[in-house]
Amino acid sequence: MENIVNAQSERQSSVLQNPRWITALFSDTRFAWLWLIARVYIGWQWLDSGLGKVTQPAWIDTGAAVKGFWERAVVVPETGRAPIAYDWYRGFLEFLLNAEAYTWFAKLVVFGEIAVGLGLLLGALTGIAALFGGFMNWNYLLAGAASTNPIMGIIAVALVIAWKTAGWWGVDRWLLPALGAPWQRGRLFGGEAQVGAEERLSTATQIEQWVRVLVGVGIALFALSQLTSAPQVLVLLFAAALVAATGLGWLRIFR
Question: Residue 38: exposed, middle, or buried by beta-carbon count in 10 A (0-12, 13-18, 19+)?
């Protein structure tokens, strides 16, 4: 009888397979270089934003910056469209304003942006960092602030989906197998969780690759922090090409 029930259950349900390119893009370490580029871009945006607020009393001392943002967001103009489209979110911000939550919420924003930025740049718990970054983008959008939030939010979602390999060129290459996941214990907890099978390369080749990747990241951060306009784009393209060629194994001195 049990066999009949199992057979019927198997006929009633099936697991649909993803296209190969989807599986490769989000799970294959050969494409981790692409997620490194995405990480560096939005990671720097968050870190630069957070560091810029650390020395501002309106963020660290009084929370006036957040208070002003919330007050502008909850206004319903007599004509035109209100910044906030959802009444429940407007009510939520009004509750925070009445509770004077901006005094501590501003600090949460500052150090949250810094933490997300560092997590993405270092590739440490990348999926979690991207999730919190995307959550902040979502809140800014709900409050009516578009700016770069739509693009950063989309990239954050992609990084969350690619969490297994997004930090491959980063701390997650060692951290994730050690910690594991809620459904699979890592080495620190007696399990054998793996993020991906690393290609068998000589020590010299691995060092060479890491040096080249770090140089590419350094060039990208220099361009993002010091350059503007066309020079910035050109330097960023060069850094991206260097990282991509390294990740794809096209540039090798040692074998």
Answer: buried
